[in-house]
């Protein structure tokens, strides 16, 4: 019985780590570059009055890298910030929106997360990955966030 609990706990811990890595990757490189909303009535945001009909665009990568929300290490890849979930990862959990927010939240969010965990776990269990020395980091913020110059990866079977 104790061995079963230990094995289960170990696998749950590994799954938690995979989840944290995915959440941090989605924070730094969200699938969409922006969300837009139209003001349905005149609204005040802080000192700014937004007239009815005005479209507001929020740049998700900017929001996800804001030191005021994520801390001074906002531009660093630190999956451990998600150890206790999204609600404890930053000062304002509503600022984490890789799948959108509110009534327009991506319907496939949960399916995508489960699918990503399964696929990533299977791939990582069979291969080692490292970046090619030729790789140049240059994310392109278009309709989606994508590598500007592609990604050169060295893959080795385990």
Detailed description of the structure:
This protein has 158 residues and is α+β, with helices and mostly antiparallel strands. It has a single domain (2-157), classed as Orthogonal Bundle (Cytochrome p450), CATH 1.10.630. It is 37% helix and 20% strand. The strands form four sheets. A two-stranded antiparallel sheet has the order 1-4. A two-stranded antiparallel sheet has the order 2-3. Helix 1 packs across helix 5 (109-126). The longest helix has 27 residues, at 2-28. The two termini are 31 Å apart. The model has no long low-confidence stretch (mean pLDDT 89).
Concise structural overview:
The protein is of the alpha+beta class.
CATH topology: Cytochrome p450
What is the strand content?
Answer: 15-25%
What's the name of the CATH homologous superfamily? Answer: Cytochrome P450
How many domain units?
Answer: 1
Name the strands of the widest sheet in spatial order. 1-4
Radius of gyration: 19 Å
In CATH, the architecture is Orthogonal Bundle
Q: Spell out the helices and strands N to C.
A: HEEEEHHHHEEEE
For the report, how would you describe the main beta sheet? Answer: 2 strands, antiparallel
Oligomerization: single chain
Contiguous helical run count: 5
Mean pLDDT value: 89
Any idea what the shape is? globular
Query: Would you count the extended β strands for me?
Result: 8
Low-pLDDT parts are none
């Amino acid at each position: 019985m104790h061995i079963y609990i230990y094995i289960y706990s170990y696998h749950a811990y590994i799954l938690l780590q995979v989840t944290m890595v995915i959440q941090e990757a989605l924070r730094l490189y969200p699938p969409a570059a922006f969300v837009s909303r139209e003001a349905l009535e005149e609204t005040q945001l802080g000192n700014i009055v937004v007239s009815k009909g005005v479209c507001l665009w929020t740049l998700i990568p900017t929001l996800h890298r804001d030191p005021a929300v994520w801390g001074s290490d906002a531009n660093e890849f630190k999956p451990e910030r998600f150890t206790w979930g999204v609600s404890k990862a930053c000062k304002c959990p509503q600022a984490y929106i890789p799948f959108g927010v509110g009534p327009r939240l991506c319907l496939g969010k949960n399916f995508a997360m489960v699918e990503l965990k399964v696929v990533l776990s299977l791939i990582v269990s069979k291969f080692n990955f490292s970046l090619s020395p030729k790789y140049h980091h240059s994310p392109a913020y278009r309709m989606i966030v994508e590598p500007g110059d592609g990604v050169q990866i060295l893959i080795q079977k385990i």
